[in-house]
Structures are given as structure tokens and as C-alpha cells.
Design brief:
Helix 3 (about 80-95) crosses helix 4 and helix 7 crosses helix 8 (about 250-260). The chain contains 8 helices and 16 strands. Helices cover about 25% and strands about 35% of the residues. The protein folds into 2 domains: about 1-95, Gcn5-related N-acetyltransferase (GNAT) (Aminopeptidase, 3-Layer(aba) Sandwich); about 125-280, Aminopeptidase (3-Layer(aba) Sandwich), CATH 3.40.630. The two termini are about 20 Å apart. Strands 1, 2, 3, 4, 5, 6, 7, 10, 11, 12, 13, 14, 15 and 16 form a 14-stranded mixed sheet that branches. Strands 8-9 form a two-stranded antiparallel ribbon. The structure holds coenzyme A. The site of coenzyme A (COA) has 18 residues, from strand 4, helix 3 and helix 4.
Length: about 280
């Protein structure tokens, strides 16, 4: 493993373009190289040739996040991702972090990533939906979320292990009492339901200037059908919201969203996805 340098880009692109979401990899490189996101990008060589890319982000003083792993299809299933991730553990530990997390799209079918997680001894911490919405329901009064103290303790008592981060890199960090100082100021109540609302002005990954809210809804609202339209009314005029909630509510939540916004479908007002969040204590 060696640190990624700009002159490695052509070699990384040569294989990463054959895999999904090459744009995301470019965003990751930009986030660390230009955006100042703490952490680093790495490459992995086999017989002198660069065959894999990955990055480590430091979210806070305890937690690290692994993202952007790509292995050249010609070299897959030879233990590269497993060895590469282990090599990152060493650096994460050396940097004083005691937990490494990552997310991957959930699926009913087995996936190579799930197997790699198993081999490395990761635990499946949570399965959560991260839905993006950029259309608002008509005729719904915009709620005025009220400050809600002590949200960290409430969520810990519910047994939640991770929380969606106030960064647009699609990270989760551990939900520890030590997170209270960061998380508590985001605590709000909407119609009696506790949520954490994290506002951002600029999308630091894409560089676009627009309004964005990351909303963690982790305590179940009494009536999702009534709650979801109210939540969607918070979509900013020029911007979007990312709503993070437990996957068990997916069907009900998304059907309430469709009922509130006519013709809502993938890439037409929303982009809905469900993620497995894995974590490992180092
Ligand atoms: C996921 C990925 C990084 C794994 O890289 P890799 O170097 O092949 O991983 P390893 O060789 O260390 O381990 C792969 C394991 O998955 C298994 N595997 C491969 N395809 C599988 C599938 N469809 N279902 C279940 N297991 C699978 C392999 O048999 C191997 O397990 P084994 O050692 O017990 O035989 C690689 O497939 C990749 O780059 N995928 C595209 C990008 C991606 O999905 N990145 C992850 C983002 S979270």
C-alpha cells in the first residue's frame, strides 16, 4: 500500500472506469486532495502495477471511515481488498482511531463486499435507508422544528449504534456518549418526533452551492403517513434533503412519500437507497 499521488490517476482510472460509480471515486480524491477532508487516498500494487484504490477518512478523534475501494476486475478474488483493508487498519490505529466503519448498498443476493467484511471480522452495525428528496408536497404546511435537548442519550437508549454524519460523504460514525457535544445541537422535534437535522450550505463533494439538510429520523413517528409529508415539506427551494432512517420502515416511508408527491420516482424527485453499515473495533 502506498499513498495516492496525482500521477497515479491514469492507472487508477484505467480499471476504475470499468466499475460502477467512477464519478464517486473522483469526488473522493477531490475531497481529500482539495477539500481538506482529514484522511488519505491509497493505492495497492501487485507485481509493481497499481491494481486497487481505497481511501480512509477521519470523521472525529475516534472513528475512521473506509470508502472508495475498487479492485481491478482482472485481480479480483485474489485477496487484494482483504489485504488492502488490513493495511489501512494499521494506519487507522496508528492515528489513534479505535473504530473503522464503511457502508455498502444492501442487497438480498450475496455480494463480494459482504464476504470481505466477514473475512475481516466486521460487524453489521445497522441497515439504514438514505433517501434523497428534492421535490416538495403541495399544500403541506412547512413544520417549524423545535429544539430538543439530549438527542444523543435518547438514541443510545433506543439501541442505535451509528448515526448519519453531518457531511455529504455518506458517512456514519459511532453513536457514543462522546458524540453528544457534536450531535445534541442538531436535536429537534417535528410534531413530537425526535430528529437530528444537520444543515449544510454547500455540497463539498460536488462543489455545488445549494441548501442541503441531512435528517436522521431514528425514533419511529407515531404515524408515518402523516409525518412523511411534513418532513418532505422541509425540502429547500434550491436544494435537497437526505433522510436517514431504519430500513424496517422503508416500504411504509416510501409509500407515504409517493402518496404525498405525485409521480415521485427514482431520479424524478427522489433517489432512495438502503445501506448496510459495517463497523470494526480496532
Ligand atoms: C468488492 C471488491 C472490492 C472485492 O475485492 P477483491 O480483491 O476481489 O476481494 P477479496 O479477494 O479480498 O475477497 C473477495 C471475496 O468475495 C467472494 N465473492 C466474490 N464475488 C462474490 C459474490 N457475488 N457473492 C459472494 N461472495 C463473492 C470471493 O470468493 C472472496 O471470498 P473468498 O476469499 O472466501 O473466496 C471488488 O469486487 C470490487 O472492486 N468491486 C467493485 C467496487 C465495489 O463494489 N467496491 C466496494 C464498495 S463498498
Amino acid at each position: 500500500m502506498e499513498p495516492y499521488r496525482p500521477e497515479h490517476f491514469a492507472a487508477v482510472r484505467a480499471f476504475a472506469r470499468k466499475l460502477d460509480n467512477f464519478f464517486y471515486l473522483k469526488l473522493i480524491i477531490r475531497a481529500h486532495a482539495e477539500g481538506g477532508l482529514p484522511g488519505s487516498c491509497w493505492v495497492w500494487r501487485e507485481d509493481g502495477r497499481i491494481v486497487a484504490f481505497s481511501a480512509t477518512a477521519f470523521l472525529n478523534k475516534d472513528d475512521a471511515w473506509l470508502w472508495g475501494m475498487r479492485v481491478d476486475p482482472e485481480c479480483q478474488c485474489h485477496g487484494v481488498a482483504t489485504a488492502f483493508t488490513r493495511a489501512q487498519f494499521k494506519l487507522i490505529r496508528a492515528a489513534g482511531r479505535t473504530w473503522a466503519g464503511l457502508n455498502t448498498l444492501d442487497s438480498r443476493k450475496p455480494k463480494a463486499t459482504f464476504r470481505v467484511m466477514e473475512k475481516l471480522g466486521f460487524e453489521l452495525e445497522d441497515i439504514q435507508c438514505d433517501d434523497i428528496y428534492w421535490r416538495r408536497p403541495r399544500g403541506v404546511v412547512v413544520p417549524r422544528p423545535k429544539p430538543l435537548p439530549g438527542i444523543t442519550g435518547r438514541l443510545i437508549r433506543l439501541g442505535l449504534k451509528t448515526v448519519f454524519y453531518d457531511n455529504d460523504g455518506w458517512f456514519n460514525c459511532r453513536l457514543l456518549p462522546a458524540r453528544a457535544r457534536w450531535l445534541n445541537p442538531f436535536g429537534r422535534s417535528i410534531d413530537g418526533t425526535p430528529v437530528a437535522i444537520m444543515p449544510r450550505r454547500t455540497d463539498s463533494l460536488s462543489g455545488k452551492d445549494h441548501d442541503m439538510l441531512s435528517i436522521n429520523v431514528l425514533e419511529r413517528p407515531d404515524d408515518l403517513r402523516a409525518f412523511v409529508p411534513r418532513l418532505l415539506a422541509l425540502v429547500p427551494k434550491r436544494g435537497h434533503i437526505v433522510v436517514n432512517y431504519p430500513s424496517e420502515w422503508a416500504k411504509e416511508f416510501r409509500s407515504a412519500a409517493r402518496a404525498a408527491i405525485p409521480k415521485l420516482r427514482r431520479n424524478h424527485g427522489c433517489w432512495q437507497s438502503t445501506w448496510r453499515i459495517y463497523g470494526k473495533h480496532l
